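[SOLVED] Need 3D model of a three-part complex

Original post:
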Amino acid sequence: MGKRHRSDAATDAATAVEPADEGARKAAKKQRKEEKKRKRLDKDAAAAEAGTAGTAEADQAGLNGAQGEQDAGDENTSDDRAARKAAKAARKEAKKAAKAAGNNAPPEQPAGSGIDSEQVEKKKRKKDRKGKGKEVEATPEQDETATVSPVKEKRKKSKKRQAAADAAIQAGIDPSLASLLDDRDFPVYPGAFNGGVSNAGASTSAAAAAAEPEVAYPNFNGSFGYFSAVQPHHYSQTLQDIPVDPSLIEVRAPNHASTSASLPDPQDPIVSPTVEHEVRLEDGEKRKAKDDKGKKKKADAPPKKRKRAAAGEEGTTRTKRKKTQGTLGAEGVEAAKGDFTEQLVTKWLRAADLKKLADEHGATYKSGKFSKAEDDTLRAAIEAFRAEQDLTQDELATLFNTKGDPKAKPNGVVAPQNEIWTRLARSLGNRPLSAVYTHVKLWYPVGGKDEAEKKGEKWTKEEDEALARAVKELGNSWVRIGQELGRSRDSCKDRWTKQLQNGAVLKAGTGAGGAAPATVKKQGKWSEEEEEQLRKLYKKHGAQWTVISAEMGGARTSTQCRTKWTDYLQRREEKKENEPAADKGDAANLWHWPKEGSARLVHAIAALDPKDKTDIDYKKVSDPEIAPQGAKNLRDRFRRLMESAEKSVREEKGMDEEDEVAFAGSSTLPSRSRRLTDAALFRAGRHHGATLGRVSNADVAPRQAQASFEGGQSRRFAKTDKVEASRLPKGQVEGAGFVER
DNA sequence: AGGGAAGTCGGTGGTACTCC
DNA sequence: GGAGTACCACCGACTTCCCT
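Solution:
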């Protein structure tokens, strides 16, 4: 089995940051590799010997528990209250048994490593499983062709990058920078990347930028960010020194805050009131739209089969919970008087309560994605609690997943129900208790860390059918279904609701030994009629994908509709509306990459000043000439452009295909290879007609790279861009090694 | 009321496939 | 072979409903 021992991760962490000496580094790397291999072999051997005693016992306990639960359900009707109680008792027993087995607990982690380590483990397991899954799934035909497939090559590279990222996480370094670790000729300081600025150069430049207003790209913070990790002595010029397309330029005041959503906010640990307010307004609008949508949907759509109803429990005496909407949580919530923190972090405020607090009392709180700083704060609080209560990681996980009787909690911890949650919420101070709860619970999945052995693997037809049977039998009890199928709750839910279209796909063949599923769902290219239908339905319903899907007869799943619209159709539609003249028939042909398209793309992405390639928000590409193409398309185009640049760097430096060209983001000093890559990339942009250039450094062999890049261009690029490139003014930017044209 | 789970939507990375 | 399209799986946030 591909599970990795936790101490491996610790080893990774310990060795993640090494002396920069190349020879020593390589030797250490090799040693690491061998060490890992040895450990894995040892572990496999031990597991084989002991019959995987440790975790297997616990797993079995879990299985028995699940089975007990199932049995309990079988004895009575599934909707019977007694049965539910029995099932719950069985669950408790299972948990107790699992705990009694003891070996279920993962090996102790070093204090402070907390969830980080778990996430690293998770990633590693995922990788292992992926590999395993492929082995299992490979058909003979696939095997024949798989030996030297480029896909495998890619995956190999991807794995390599992933390993570096994992090590980086362990070392407390931004994973996006991981590839620098093995390809650096400069000192890397752990923690240097956790700050709010994109890089050291940025802070320098930003300071300079603050002095006077400047002409710059939107959101441009004074450096190339992702592209350059600018150090003044390496790159003496920044974008404002370079002639650029005026349409891409805006004048902005100094200290203009970057709007890049994923850039960590230096002020973030606890959000400043101003930021909170903005968030609130923005989210309020969005929420309102959503709420309205929800109401409308409820009115239009047939009533949802909730678990109870689906199980035929109409006859119960339970009355519908009285809605507290508009009452600020009834007596629980006092009228706000300026400081809402206490209520926010101690009361279980529902959406309506929060909305009212915000709308009527001006309460502000943060919503949306949790930042890294917030996660760190929460982790620290969890770790403090764990240390204080003398809990192991496993006990902690159990605690987070134990409800009801506090005595059932491990280690005699008898905390008030919400003490831990209140405590965590308090550590942030600006997030609703329920939001903190939901977020942290994601770190402690119900079924435990190993709940989803098949994570990442494709669903097979058999699994789909098993899922259908499980849904038929258990209703929408996704937790139990997940246990049955060895998949996570969310995975089952997603598969059923998004891919199988609530079972429509499987309608005809879900019985035991039943016929093959009738494929209601349509796949493949969308016809013009379908696209038109989607347009109309979107206009009618907005982003109610389930409704849209239903109105399309279920032939396209909600996910298909969503991705088709958001990734491909939406921007074309916007373009069509803005420029009706452009609408001359076939919508698919409305848009073509403009001349200089590649260069414009490079420009536009540079303007977003991403930290690294994962930080590029393609939806924010504002260049109107290329924006209509949609995020996915831009992503792919840029990816290919970068691949070309990588190729040129490899050729230039005589690197092997296996050698990774580091593109990773900011650092205190630029990586040598990244400088090369940046240079190649920017030459690429220049080659394709941008008035974009840069000062290079002595390491760059520009003419070779230029030649190789040109050689690597696609026919399409050549068709659209080359003519324009020939008209470029020469030598717009002078500098050592810069290519004049 | 507190806590838990389901429903829904959206973001994202990866990749297979088709078209040119 | 590159570009574009489509699909998939996972994850996260949020709301609503349900249960104790």
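Edit: The first helix of chain A runs from residue 6 to 16.
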